Here is the input.
Amino acid sequence: MGWRPGAGAAGRLPARERFGFAVGDFGLNLYWQGIGLFLIYYQTDVLGLPAWWAGAVFFLASLWDALANPVMGLVADRTRTRWGRFRPYVLLGSLPLAASFALAFSAPGLGGGALVAYALAAQLLLRTAYTVVAIPYAALSASMTRDSAERTALTGLRMQFAFLGGVAVAYLFPFLVPRLGDGDPRQGYLLAACLLGLLGVASAVLCFALAREGEGEAGRPAPAGLLAEARGFLGIARRSGPLLRLLGGLVLVSVFVSLHTASLAYVLKYVLGAWQAAEWALPLVAAVNAAAALLWVPVLQRRGKPAGWRLSAGVTILFGLALFLAPPLPLLPSLLLVAGVAVGSTGFGVCFWSMLPDTVEYNQWRFGRRDEATTVGLACFAQKLSLGLSAALMGLVLEAGGFVPNAEQGPAALASIRALAGLLPAVGAALSLLLLRRYPLDARRHRTLVRALARRDARPGPSCGTRGAGPG
Here is the structure.
C-alpha cells in the first residue's frame, strides 16, 4: 500500500496538516461538550423534564449513536473520492450537524410525553449528524501517519484543540444565554447553540482544507459487500487482544469517569452554591484539560502509552476520592480537586486515541486487514453506548438521592452529586487499571510491526495489507 512522502519514514507531518487535523476536533468538541455539560441540565432545569426521563432520553440517543458508529466506519472505509475517504464527510456533514445542535437546544412549547418525544427525536438527529462527521474525522489519524510517536503528538494537539473547544462552549453558553435570551433562557440557549454551530462549521472547513490523507489510500480497490466486510472485521476484532483490552478500558472510563464532567453543573449549583461562578469556573476546568493534553504527550512519549494509562488512573483515583471524602470546602479548593480529576481523565483521552490507531497495524500484521474507520467506529460504538449507560446511571443516582431540580437539596441528594463527581470516577479508573495491566502493544512492539509490514509490502505479489488477504 502506497504511503505519501509527506508522512516521511519517521512519520513527521507538516505543521499545517497537524493544525488542520487538530482544529477539526475544536469544532466537534463544541458539540460534544455542549451535549455533555449542558444538555441534561437544559432539559431538567430549563425545560422541566424529570431527571429520570432526561437520563433515559440520553441513553436511548446514545444507544442509537453507538449502533450507527460502526456502520459509518464501514461506509467511510468503502468511500472513494478525489478528496479521499474521510475528509468529504467532515466538510459536507458540518452544516447538518450545526443545524441539529440548534434543534436539540430548542423548546417548541411542548410538555409531558410530547416534550419527551421531541427531546428524543432532536437527540437522535443530532447524534446521527455527529456520527457522520466524527467517525471519518477520527480515522484520519491512522491514515495520516504510521509512526506511533507522531500519533501521540498528533493526538495531544488534537486533544488540546478539543479541550479548547470545551473551554469555548463552557464559557460561551453561560455567558451568552442570559445576554441573548433577554430573560428567557430557552431563547438564550437556542441562539447560543446557533452561534456555536457556526464556529463548528468554520473548524470543519479548515480541517478539510489543511489535513491530508495518505497517498494511495483513495486508490485502493473498494471492498466487496458491506455485510461481508462487517462479518470479516468483527471476526478479527473478537480475536484481537490489544483491541479488546483497549475497548474494555474505554467502556469503564466512559461509564464512570465521564460522570465527573456531566455532574459539574450540579456540583457548582447545589453542592457549592456558586452557580454564579459557572461563567468562569467551567471554562477554567476546560482550560486545565487543554493544558493537561499537552503535558501528557511527553509523558507518553517518554514512559510509553500503557504506563501513561496507569498514571492517568492513579491521578483520577487520588483526586476523585479526595473530592468525595473531603469535608465541605470553599469554591477554590473544591475546584482544585475537580481540576485534578480533569487532569487524570484527560490522560485517558490522550492515551486511548493515540493507542487505538496502533491496533490498526497490529490487526493488519496479524490478520491481513487494515480497517481505520471501522476500528474507530467500533470504538465509538463502545464509547457512545457506555456514555448512554453513564447518563442513565446519573439519572438513577440523582433520583435515588432524592434530587429535586431548582430546590435546596437534602444530604442524600448532595452525597449523590459528590459520588457522581468523585467516587464513581475513581472506581472506574481503578477497574480500567486492572484490565489494562498487561496491555502488550507498547512503542517497541509497534515499531517492529510497522517494519514487518513495510518488508511485507515490498515483496512482489499480493500485499497482505490488502483487504481479503489471509492472516499474516
Remarks:
- DSSP finds 16 helices and no strands in the chain.
- The domain at 14-211+229-457 is CATH 1.20.1250.20 (Growth Hormone; Chain: A;).
